[in-house]
Design goal:
This protein has helices at residues 2-27, 31-37, 47-50, 73-81, 83-89, 98-102, 114-125, 129-137, 139-145, 154-158, 178-186, 189-195, 201-207, 209-216, 224-228, 248-253, 278-314, 337-361, 366-372, 380-405, 407-413, 422-433, 448-472, 474-480, 483-514, 524-527. By secondary structure, the chain is mostly helical. Among the domains are: 173-269, no CATH class; 284-314 and 330-527, Fumarate Reductase Cytochrome B subunit (Up-down Bundle). Helix 4 packs across helix 5 (83-89), helix 7 (114-125) crosses helix 8 and helix 18 packs antiparallel against helix 20 (380-405). The longest helix is centred in the middle third of the chain and has 37 residues, at 278-314. It is elongated, with a radius of gyration of 36 Å.
Length: 548
């Protein structure tokens, strides 16, 4: 291996020496070209490498001109697939070729040099003069003019040789790739520290609705260029900037007509804990306390209940037989047929809302992909989410209407109305479940467990319905309210969804599945009759025993 490497090195040095010797011979007649090529990208390339049949003198006629593809086949292939190459293919002789951008082969500059980088806007401006002028006036163009080599030029965004139409899915400036293209610099922590621009812009965009929808595949949602501009990107302090506070109403108004006409739009790039509005911050902090506290108490309550029942059923003393439960003379109707229909629609709509809602927040997970895989063509996730929302709100309205119209349903519903006895009942049973007392308390047939579930659903439906309508009608919301209102309801909507989902899993699923008294399933939602034996409760207004 060592001898082979030495052999290649030796042959390379010999070949270079031969090429240089041949070039010196050529220079005796072609002094001008030899002078031009000195110090260029081709300086180390001998004349024989490109020029065929050079050894014959006088040089024969009809020798083909050197082709760039002989050394740069990959790059030539990329150029052929680009908009420039396709224009040439279709007869546009004005479309740029290699020498238009790189110059004469004897004068080709090193593309990695600062001079070449600084001259790219002028090179592209030979054909795209108006765009070049916009770029030179932008923050990027001004940085290039100051000699900052890290400042982006045309090729950094559009590519160097394989320049594709923005409509092409493979283009670096396609709507699906704008975030990643801008992120090359604005997601670079080292560059942000060196030049003092914010380092969290990509993170805050990804966390916003625009970023989440874009990550899910939406082609119509706003991206970096939609707000900041394409070539005319200016600092927010510049009066001509599209993101100047005075111009935000116009910029946002392209997608949200009327936004900012009554109130100032306010900050856009926001992250939790970093300059977010006080209302949003306190909502987030409140739910960050409420969710763990509520779900934690639910878990302790149910875990204690499950362990007590497990001990009685599995670890009771030998010979001990629990007293038989007294079955009621007639089974209690827990859910009337109309209530079971409402429950079925509620389960279907709630499950769909949870699935489609969290698919927006976490589009990369396997369970969300089936919803977002068509997002670039049609917003399946959003449409299904809104249909489910309409179903849930219709169920809520129907429920209220049924209580007004039906005396039987209203009397049944009154059993879920909170009473003062619910508080001591809940406290004593919680203490019993935690082992703080061995005296099992009395539990009402429709006690605090059922009431907590019902009123939590009622409260959650109102909150999710109101905030969801504001998010759905975001243009109307932004027309009459400041953006902070939309940020606030977005926070409420998300955290309320998290709380509701966890409550269903920890509280409701235990009551209807994992509670040993009903395991493997409480079938009241199917038959109307509970498999669990409840203690009797005298209630002259109750109408549970009426025939269906």
């Amino acid at each position: 291996m060592v001898l082979t490497a030495l052999g290649f090195a030796f042959w390379g040095s010999v070949s270079l020496s031969l090429a240089q010797s041949a070039s010196e011979v050529c220079a005796s007649c072609h002094a001008d070209q030899a002078k031009k090529i000195h110090g260029t990208a081709h300086a180390e390339v001998g004349c024989p490498t490109c020029h065929q049949r050079h050894e014959a003198y006088p040089h024969p006629a009809g020798v083909p001109k050197p082709q760039c593809s002989e050394c740069h086949a990959t790059i030539v292939g990329e150029h052929a697939a680009s908009v420039h190459g396709q224009a040439l293919k279709h007869g546009n002789q004005a479309a740029p070729t290699c020498d238009v951008c790189h110059g004469d082969p004897h004068e080709t500059k090193d593309t990695k040099s600062a001079t070449f980088h600084q001259g790219v806007p002028d090179t592209c401006g030979m054909c795209h003069s108006e765009i070049a002028e916009q770029f030179k006036a932008s923050v990027h163009g001004q940085a290039v003019a100051r000699g900052i080599s890290e400042a982006p030029v045309c090729t950094n965004c559009h590519g160097e040789h394989e320049i594709l139409s923005p409509k092409s899915a493979r283009s670096s400036v396609n709507a699906a790739h704008i975030r990643d293209t801008c992120g090359q610099c604005h997601g670079n922590v080292q560059l942000s520290k060196r030049f003092g621009f914010p380092s969290d812009r990509m993170v805050s965009f990804d966390a916003s609705f625009h970023g989440l929808a874009a990550r899910a595949g939406s082609q119509s949602v706003a991206n970096c260029a939609s707000c900041h501009g394409v070539h005319n990107i200016l600092a927010s302090t510049d009066p001509s900037s599209t993101i100047n506070p005075k111009n935000l109403a116009t910029t946002c108004g392209h997608c949200h007509p009327g936004a900012g006409t009554r109130f100032v739009i306010g900050a856009v790039h926001e992250l939790p804990g970093r300059g977010e509005p006080p209302a949003v911050r306190w909502a987030r902090i409140g739910y960050s306390i409420l969710i763990p506290l509520t779900i934690g108490l639910m878990f302790l309550h149910n875990a204690g209940d499950w362990l007590r029942k497990l001990r009685v059923r599995r670890f009771r003393p030998v010979g001990h037989v629990p007293p038989p439960a007294t079955a009621p003379s007639r089974p209690e109707i827990r859910m009337y047929p109309f209530e079971r229909i409402q429950h079925a629609l509620l389960v279907l709509s709630f499950t769909t809302l949870v699935w489609t809602g969290f698919a927006l927040k976490y589009p990369d997970h396997w369970w969300a992909r089936i919803l977002v895989m068509w997002e670039h063509d049609f917003p399946v996730r959003g449409v299904v989410h809104r249909i489910a929302a309409v179903v849930m709100m219709a169920v809520a309205v129907t429920h209220v209407a049924s209580l007004i119209a039906s005396g039987r349903l209203r009397r049944h519903w009154k059993q879920l109305w909170p009473r003062r006895s619910d508080v001591p009942e809940a406290l004593f049973n919680f203490a019993y479940n935690l082992g703080l007392t061995n005296r099992r308390p009395y539990l009402s047939p429709h006690g605090y467990i059922e009431k907590a579930e019902y009123w939590a659903v009622a409260w959650g439906t109102v909150i999710m319905g109101l905030t969801g309508i504001m998010l759905w009608a975001n243009n109307l919301t932004l027309h009459f309210l400041p953006k902070v209102a939309l940020d606030f309801v977005t926070t409420i909507h998300f955290y309320e969804a998290v709380l509701a989902s966890l409550a269903i899993v920890v509280w409701h699923f235990y009551s209807v599945i994992f509670d040993p008294d009903v395991y493997p399933l409480e079938t009241a939602f199917l038959t109307g009759v509970s498999v669990k034996e409840h203690e009797a409760e005298a209630d002259p207004e109750a109408d549970e025993h009426q025939p269906q």
